[in-house]
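ok, trying the design again with the full structure, not the truncated one.
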């Protein structure tokens, strides 16, 4: 320990308030500022210095050095300060786990042994340690070991249970339900691969037992407001398999629309897919996707939403369809999506071929984009790249560039030149179409600032 004291500690001893100890992955309750008037013992000074060295080693990924200091730091458990003794077990658990997860000579057996020791070091952290240990086992494919640990943790009791421990216990039960679902799905797969005659009664009973255990635990956790995507998906799958569609609908509707739950776009996605599987009306599907559009306008389901809207006889829905497809292309992830560009090009072509009816819709959408779409989508650089990588994409974008930015747009000119040079017939058709509807460009750009023809 003498070697530890000789190294300079971080911070000045004469400070009226020494700097808080800050360790990665530690909650704020482990930051220990030293107030004026409290004189540190040599033991406290040594342990704080040791903790600072551990922190330094962790930040530099020096796992062996951190492990060596950790051996000395374990003496903090003998501290005469009550607050230190209370917080030390969790600090040792978190730091020790971090070291073992990254140390080159560490293995699963050592981490398992360390975790078992930590579970009983501070009983208040028992369930929390169990949960993180289970995640580790699952990440390493040790399903059976994780299930055994979940079963043991589920039956753990010590004194009066706190609210936090009650929440942790519910999580333990929920993850046990998730593994019961995993076992059930394996049995289901085996059943579907075999003839009914070859699937024994005992196997069917075992499968039903897994279903019952999973359903009970999964149902409980999703009653609590929160984001429970994997649990909801698994529970609904169980319900659908056994034909309880009403319960599945109720669960998904509650998950999507209950105001006590945090906003979650996935909840609407799950509800949409369920309703689609059940053959629900287009009206029901559109109402779900309308909410998803407001929260995630770039979602992959927006193309389905767009298709449903454009097939509607209602003018308002067709107008929304144009807004949806424009908004999709506002996002970088869709920049090279041929289908999205084809949808927009097709709708604008229909508008132009229908005596320019609803051209004002296009103008409204373009006005908010005319200052940034040219550089974002229709630059000369993108024209070259799109032509080299995807001719279909370049064609659809060139048509739109010619209509929205006029025939002097460099994107349009470059792609048209390359297409005509390659003697592609459709590019001649494209040239004629843009020329025929050149007045549309003038109307779209009317009362607007001139767009830069990149």
């Amino acid at each position: 320990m003498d070697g530890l004291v000789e190294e300079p500690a971080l911070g000045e001893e004469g400070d009226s308030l020494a700097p808080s100890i800050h360790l990665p992955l530690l909650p704020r309750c482990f930051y220990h500022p030293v107030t004026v008037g409290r004189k540190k013992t040599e033991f406290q000074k040594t342990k704080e210095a040791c903790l600072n060295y551990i922190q330094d080693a962790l930040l530099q990924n020096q796992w062996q050095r951190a492990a060596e200091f950790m051996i000395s730091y374990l003496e903090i458990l003998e501290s005469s300060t009550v607050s230190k003794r209370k917080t030390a077990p969790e600090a040792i658990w978190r730091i020790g786990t971090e070291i073992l997860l990254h140390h080159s000579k560490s293995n699963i057996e050592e981490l398992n042994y360390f975790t078992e020791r930590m579970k009983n070091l501070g009983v208040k952290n028992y369930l929390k340690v169990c949960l993180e240990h289970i995640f580790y086992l699952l990440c390493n494919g040790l399903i059976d070991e994780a299930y055994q640990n979940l079963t043991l943790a589920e039956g753990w009791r010590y004194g009066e249970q706190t609210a936090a421990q009650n929440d942790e216990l519910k999580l333990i039960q929920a993850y046990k339900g998730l593994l019961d679902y995993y076992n059930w799905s394996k049995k289901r797969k085996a059943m579907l691969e075999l003839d009914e005659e070859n699937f024994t009664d005992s196997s069917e009973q075992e499968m039903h037992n897994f279903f019952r255990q999973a359903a009970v635990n999964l149902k409980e956790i999703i009653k609590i407001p929160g984001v429970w995507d994997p649990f909801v998906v698994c529970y609904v799958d169980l319900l659908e398999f056994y034909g309880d569609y009403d319960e599945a609908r109720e669960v998904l509707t509650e998950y999507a629309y209950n105001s006590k739950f945090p906003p979650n776009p996935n909840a609407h996605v799950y509800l949409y897919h369920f309703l689609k599987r059940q053959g629900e009306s287009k009206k029901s599907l559109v109402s779900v996707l309308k909410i998803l559009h407001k929260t995630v306008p770039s979602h992959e389901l927006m193309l389905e939403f767009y298709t449903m809207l454009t097939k509607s006889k209602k003018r308002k829905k067709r107008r929304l369809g144009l807004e949806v497809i424009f908004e999709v292309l506002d996002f970088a992830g869709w920049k090279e999506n041929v289908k999205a560009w084809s949808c927009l090009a097709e709708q604008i072509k229909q508008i132009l071929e229908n005596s320019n009816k609803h051209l004002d819709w296009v103008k409204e959408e373009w006005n908010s984009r005319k200052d940034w779409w040219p550089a974002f989508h229709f630059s000369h650089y993108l024209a070259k790249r799109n032509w080299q990588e995807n001719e279909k994409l370049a064609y659809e974008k060139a048509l739109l560039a010619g209509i929205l930015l006029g025939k002097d747009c460099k994107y349009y000119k470059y792609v048209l030149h390359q297409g005509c040079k390659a003697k592609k017939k459709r590019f001649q058709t494209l040239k004629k179409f843009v020329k025929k509807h050149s007045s549309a460009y003038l109307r779209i750009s009317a009362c607007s600032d001139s767009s830069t023809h990149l």
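Keeping the full-length input from now on. The chain is about 70% helix and 0% strand.
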